[in-house]
Amino acid sequence: MPKIAYFGPSGTFTEIALAQFEAAGVFDELVERVPAGSPPSTLDLVRDGVVDGAVVPFENSVEGGVAPTLDSLALGSPLQIVAETEIEVSFSILVRDGVTADQVRTIGAYPHASAQVRGWIAANLPNAEVVVSSSNAGAALDVQAGTVDAGVSTALAGQMLGLASLADNVADVGGAVTRFVLVTRPAPVPARTGADRTALVLHLDNAPGSLVQALSEFAARGIDLTRIESRPMRTELGTYRFFVDCVGHIEDSLVAEAMRALYRKSGVRFLGSWATANSTGPQPPSDDKAIAWIEDIKRGEGER
To answer: DSSP label at 128?
Structure first.
């Protein structure tokens, strides 16, 4: 039985994402779910060989990339994304039985969650102080323990812990989606499906035009970028690494060609090529005719 870690404890959206991977048949057999306390610690379980894979939040349509996940993937020994799934995210405001809205003075929330319900809290719990919780399910545990009066959490966590709900389906932006990824140690890349995504981390020289030059490798080949995000290097002010997602697979010749060009002149970490949960953007142009043309010339068969 493979062991799959997830950002826990039980009842988080990440566990729900793991269940979606299971239901989609991503694993060949039943898995043992292993909760971990943060995205970095979840990924470290993979690096240390304690588990076979890990599910972590990667990107939210409202708040962007999940910084702890991105930083952990960029540093340490390489890991590889092999699959993704998406969840439409809204929250439940959980309390202990009998607690009313006017009694709420503190509300626990994971930072990514509190940012998505900031407006609702201001309108409905204006006197509540937001207290950082370790995760969405952790906020429910804080409510159960009595360290906060309310928690921004999941309906699942509320059901598991027997908590009451002041409000359900809470979100400042309707239809918000979070993307979760399944991460393993480096392995053969999943087969190309024709609806794929490739992710890279770019470590560029701190020089004028370095980012433009890097991005031009995609533009010149007609490769559509679906995400670009910077994160500080934490060495000195003004130094950044860049996370880039593009449409296509490493088996697409133009994607591989762009990767080779980037590798020749900058630091590149390959994060994976995998099937998208929802296809976005045009596929890379076919390079078959150009490849065939070169092969004809090499065989002395002239031009097409």
So the answer is: P
Pairing of β 129-132 and β 106-109: parallel
Helix axes 253-265, 210-219, angle to 10 degrees: 160
**Helix runs in the chain, H state only:** 13-23, 39-47, 67-74, 111-116, 118-124, 136-145, 155-161, 210-219, 253-265, 288-298
Which letter does DSSP use for residue 61 in this model? Answer: T
Reduced to 3 states (helix: H, G, I; strand: E, B; else coil), residue 71 is helix
Closest CA to 30 of 22, 20, 21, 41: 22
pLDDT by position in tens, the chain (length 304): 899 999 999 999 999 999 999 999 999 899 999 999 999 999 999 999 999 999 999 999 998 999 999 999 999 999 999 999 999 999 999 999 999 999 999 999 999 899 999 999 999 999 999 999 999 999 999 999 999 999 999 999 999 999 999 999 999 998 999 999 999 999 999 999 999 999 999 999 888 999 999 999 999 999 999 999 999 988 888 889 999 999 999 999 999 999 999 999 889 999 999 999 987 788 999 988 988 888 888 989 876 5
Counted residue by residue, the chain has a size of 304
Question: What three-state secondary structure class fits 226?
Answer: strand
69, 113, 164, 184, 296 from 49: Cα distances, Å: 18, 30, 39, 10, 48
What SS3 state is found at 212? Answer: helix
**DSSP assignment of 31-53, as one string?**
-EEEEESSHHHHHHHHHTTSSSE
pLDDT in tens, 154-205: 999 999 999 999 999 999 998 999 999 999 999 999 999 999 999 999 999 8
Q: Quick one: which H or E segment has residue 181?
A: strand 177-184
Cα–Cα distance between 117 and 130 in angstroms, integer?
A: 11
